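testing teh design pipeline on a random one, pls ignore if ur not involved
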């Protein structure tokens, strides 16, 4: 399904693909690997979970536009990362529970084979980019803690796996603070939102701290035009709830409801003019969205984009000069 529509001066596009949304895979549950030295990546065709090969092929049809976009926005997060030189890199959980990755061999060019980074993870991965351009990947381990691995130099080799502790029950989300510090968010065993952050750009990590609330989906993080992070999740009442930094890298607001009745993890995108926009599946199975009416400002009501979807993902970046958001939704049935 492809839908084009306009609101004001900006056009948006929704693309529905196959059974699985782009880069989203499911896999088996295994424990984390021991911390260790840098891994030797072996080129193989991994026993990745169903849909990964199709999704990677879909990515390759879009890679030139995505590469241009990621070069203009270092806050790109999700299962696809943008290297300092503009090469995209895709991460997925394999059927053996390990983290696998494939990357462009040149910006906008061909792709490598699949390589294993080891580990045993029990959530889909998410990747952030450090202030110096090094990618860092986060996932839940078999012990329920947050584990991470990172490039030891921009575009270079990878560290072993290391634990950041905590006990999380969902896929983590990562945001990039205004000063270059990564911050990770996850749902804890108590249903609240918990977070941990780098105490300096690329440096050590804080302990875990609770942001309270009660959420029933994975959290997703966006960054406002002024650098303030904002986190969204489904609440126990089925509505979309959010909390945000009151200043870039600073204190957090309480939780506030944006209403609606959603039945999926939300997805957040950044429009070309700096306004955040959130998408989710509604109780009727259609795609619904709400958006900031001005950058960092108030929110619209909910509006339906129709269709019937089973999942979605919005790449967490704008698409350069095009000014489009692209929503990648999986369809069981669509019109």
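output:
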């Amino acid at each position: 399904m492809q839908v084009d529509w306009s609101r004001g001066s900006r056009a948006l596009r929704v693309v529905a693909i196959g059974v699985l949304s782009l880069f989203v895979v499911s896999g088996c549950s295994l424990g984390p690997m021991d911390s260790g030295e840098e891994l030797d990546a072996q080129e193989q065709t991994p026993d990745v979970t169903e849909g990964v090969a199709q999704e990677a092929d879909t990515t390759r049809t879009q890679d030139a536009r995505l590469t241009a976009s990621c070069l203009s926005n270092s806050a790109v997060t999700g299962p696809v990362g943008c290297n300092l030189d503009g090469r995209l890199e895709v991460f997925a959980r394999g059927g053996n529970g390990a983290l696998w990755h494939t990357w462009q061999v040149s910006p906008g060019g061909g792709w490598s084979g699949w390589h294993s980074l080891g580990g045993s993870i029990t959530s889909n991965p998410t990747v952030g980019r450090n202030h110096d351009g090094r990618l860092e990947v986060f996932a839940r381990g078999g012990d329920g803690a947050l584990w991470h691995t990172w490039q030891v130099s921009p575009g270079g080799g990878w560290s072993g796996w290391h634990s950041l502790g905590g006990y999380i029950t969902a896929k983590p989300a990562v945001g990039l603070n205004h000063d270059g510090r990564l911050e990770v968010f996850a749902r804890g065993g108590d249903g609240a939102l918990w977070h941990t952050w780098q105490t300096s750009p690329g440096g050590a990590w804080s302990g875990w701290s609770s942001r309270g609330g009660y959420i029933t989906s994975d959290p997703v993080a966006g960054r406002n035009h002024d650098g303030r992070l904002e986190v969204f999740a489904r609440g126990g009442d089925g509505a979309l709830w959010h909390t945000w930094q009151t200043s870039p890298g600073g204190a957090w607001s309480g939780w506030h409801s944006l209403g609606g009745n959603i039945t999926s993890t939300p997805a957040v995108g950044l429009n070309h003019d700096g306004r955040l926009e959130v998408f989710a599946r509604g109780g009727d199975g259609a795609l619904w969205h709400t958006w900031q009416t001005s950058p960092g400002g108030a929110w619209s009501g909910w509006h339906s984009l129709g269709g019937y979807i089973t999942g979605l993902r919005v790449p967490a970046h704008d698409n350069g000069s095009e000014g489009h958001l692209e929503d990648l939704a999986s369809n069981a049935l669509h019109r």
